[in-house]
Amino acid sequence: MRNVDYFKGKKVLVVGLARSGVACARLLCGLGAEVTVTDIKDDVRTRQAAGMLDPHKVRIELGSHNRDTVLRADLVVVSPGVPADSLCVKWAHEAGRPVIGEVEAAAILCPARIVAVTGSNGKTTVTTLIGKVLEADKRKVFVCGNIGNPFCGEVEKMGPDEFAVLEISSFQLETIKTFKPEVALILNLTQNHLDRYPGMREYLDAKKRIFMNQDRGDFLVVNADDPVLKAVSSEALSKVIFFSRYGRANPNYGAVEAVAGILGVSPQVYEKVFAGFKGIEHRMEEVGETRGVTFINDSKATTADSAVWAISNIKRPVILIAGGRHKGIDYRVILKEAEGKVKYAVLIGEARDIIASDLGAGGFPVVKAASLEEAVTEAYRAAGPGDCVLFSPMCSSYDMFTDYEQRGRVFKKIVADLLNREALVNG
Fold first, then answer.
1. What confidence tens digit (pLDDT) does each residue in 108-160 have?
2. Which domains are assigned to the chain?
3. Sign of dihedral through CA atoms 165, 130, 233, 201?
4. For the whole model, what pTM was predicted?
């Protein structure tokens, strides 16, 4: 690592005990910082996270935030899920304490070459593929950030001329200061997180921060098919490289191809990776079939535009399961693609009434379910041979699940149990 003495002796307050908060606390404690962690929650999951830290080395505060703790800190590090109007952030700003995020903390220490990927949709797929392409080209690469392990959990293992390929959310970009990726990607911009941002302009402003510290030796990869992103790319000092979905069955491949070209990876290498890529878990993942009905786990789809892409790539009638925590988006954007394709929708979670209202003009039945299990049962009842039950939530998972991964695993378990019952009945 570089700058290993940067945090030594500092009083650091880590706000939020999700995976990134735990990883950050461990890392900075090991570098000689005096670390306190605080979380507004005091539940089973938060206590489990706190149990991963050594209470003799890290001070832990659960259930509330303490203003005096903030005032004692030299530096406040916030986890991505901590809102900008959190009391801790407010107190820190009032007291003149610097506030950064976990990504910024890791970047200060990172000796590796950074490739950072953001956008409304496709981040996980593109980040995964870039990692696979670099590995196939015999480069040492760490894929982390908002995918897999937190950046702080991997940075100690990195060396110069190795690669950190990071999936970066708009939340994480809000708290960067000096973060400077060698290659930055903005894949697209569609309605997302409008429960956090007043409007699309503010959401775009957060995404643009990915290139704010780049200079002429760096690269910004931008979607040429998105006129808004194409326009704002003129603000970058870095060299802008455009990609397009033209000629590609999957638009994500165009972005990966652009990065491969920048980093000197031959077409033979990345085309072989593309040919062997089977997709990522929880994104258009076929999980079973019975009585001619196929079940697809698309739990990763946390926006309506992701669901549009899923529906457009299914060539059979769709029974849609959707819902979760509302993010302020307009679900009517799926109606054009759903026309003649979606024959039934089952809605769950906090957003089910809003989605039901938006889909009311779709010309297909819309029903509500109290749980995901009930939704799967209802969707299967409504399906016939040749139909597809698509779980593409369009929402975040936090009303019912810890994250989209747990949500996807629960869906797969429900489907597996249903298939087992069908096998017993028909067997």
1. 999 999 999 999 888 999 999 999 999 999 999 999 998 889 999 999 999 99
2. 11-97 (3.40.50.720), 104-276 (3.40.1190.10), 285-426 (3.90.190.20)
3. negative
4. 0.84
